[in-house]
Amino acid sequence: MKSSVYPERYEIKEVCENFIKRRTLNTFMQERGIFAINASTEDVSTILSNIVWDAVAIEDLRRTAFQCSNKNSLSGFTVSSSLNEFSIKNVYETARDNDKVLCSKGYQLGFLAKETREDGTDVFKGQLDYEIRRPGRIQFIDKEEGHCEFRMFEKKVGGWQVEVDGTRTNDGKEVQRLFSQLLNKDRTTMHFLNIDNLRDKQTILFFDEVIKRGLSDEWHFNDVVALTFRRGRDEIVEEENDNEEQTSQPTLTGIRQAILEGGHLRDDAFVRRFEEDGCVFAAMTLAFQNTTKPEVIHIRAEFKGNPKIFEVSIVNSYVCEGTDGKLITRLLSAKRNLQIRSELWNNSRNIYDEILSGEIKNQ
User: Fold this and answer.
1) Mean pLDDT computed over 48-77
2) pLDDT of amino acid 20
3) CA–CA separation, 50 vs 10, rounded Å?
4) Residue 209 contacts by C-beta under 8 Å, 6 or more apart in sequence?
5) Degrees to nearest 5, angle at CA 286 with 284 and 287
6) Phi/psi at 87 (nearest 5 deg)?
7) Residue 56 reports pLDDT greater than 70
8) Which residues contact 102 (CB under 8 A, 6 or more apart)?
């Protein structure tokens, strides 16, 4: 899947200047004995584009361009079937062993690994490799190798859940697409958290309930620090890095979509006016503080992609230090990161189901 064609000089310059963070570029250079003092990102990109790199360095640049700004997001779906002794694990293993069928669809599946959660649930971790083609003038990054992990476990007889841990929205949709082609459509149904199933006011109710019930009592909700909302259901085409209109103007005229960042956004007057006029909540970034440890996380819950499927990611994590509670960036362990995202996604799924069933309603 990797290209054997050496990229053009302008391609390397543009990728280094626009796709890779400066800190990551510095690390890339220092690992190869190159040090740029008081040089701008443009200067560094020019320097790197004029060097002839080996295949390992080129592949490192290519991979970094795709991954350096990505954060793992968790999405998922449930599967219910009337088939006797239905097992999505068996569906996976049967498909994996049929390489010709998978290769013709551009998929490669890894071997399953069994895990046991604290509650005794057996979980099977699968891996999916797939190819993404992105036509454009930069051939250096017109082809990307996608990879994600997902976990499958039985919830009840005939009912399984799949949680996808990926670095891009497309990962979850590729896993959904894979299983939609493998499952018996007549006797098996896949269920997604799709915003199209919620009415406008129900989207607001959904996120308000996520604020209250998204995480356990281990976490105290502090604030809404980012909010995305839009007027109407007109389709807005999204790329992996969304270029959505951001606004802080105190007017609703002509605004179809807004992304706000700051504090106390749920009670902001501009948001209230938009809500009264009729809008759809599509995403929130919530700040939670741990009740027993000096930890703070910013976790993003959003309906994303086309169709817009619910996913969860941790965008920042901190520890509080000093008497003034200064927030210092501190990465969570991969296991703890996944556990928190899974908890919020599963609680959100319960809220979503309760809204659709009418168990909870708008006041």
Assistant:
1) 81
2) 80
3) 9
4) 351, 355, 360
5) 160
6) -145, 120
7) yes
8) 95, 96, 108, 109
C-alpha span between 272 and 276 (Å, rounded): 6
For residue 87, what pLDDT band results from cuts at 50, 70 and 90? very high
The Cα-based distances of 250 to 82, 247, 258, 274 in angstroms read 53, 9, 11, 10
pLDDT tens figures, 222-273:
999 999 999 877 654 443 344 344 444 444 456 778 889 888 999 988 899 8
Helix (H, G, I), strand (E, B) or coil at 192: coil
At residue 108, what are phi and psi to the nearest 5 degrees? -135, 130
Q: Quote the pTM value.
A: 0.76
For residue 159, give Cα distances in angstroms to 16, 61, 72, 309.
46, 42, 26, 20
Element (H or E) spanning 174, and its range? helix 169-182
Token code pair at residue 45: 């990109």
pLDDT at 338: 92
CA distance 296 to 288: 6
Chain position carrying tokens 């996608």: 146
User: Three-state secondary structure along 4-56?
Assistant: CCCCCHHHHHHHHHHCCCHHHHHHHHHCCCCCCCCCCHHHHHHHHHCCCCCHH
CA distances from 248 to 208, 238, 257, 262, 304 (A): 22, 21, 11, 10, 22
Asked if the peptide bond before residue 307 counts as cis, ω within 30 degrees of 0, the response is yes
Q: Which residues contact 15 (CB under 8 A, 6 or more apart)?
A: 7, 61, 62, 65, 138, 140, 141
pLDDT given for residue 141 in this prediction = 54
Strand pairing report for 280-290 and 295-304: antiparallel
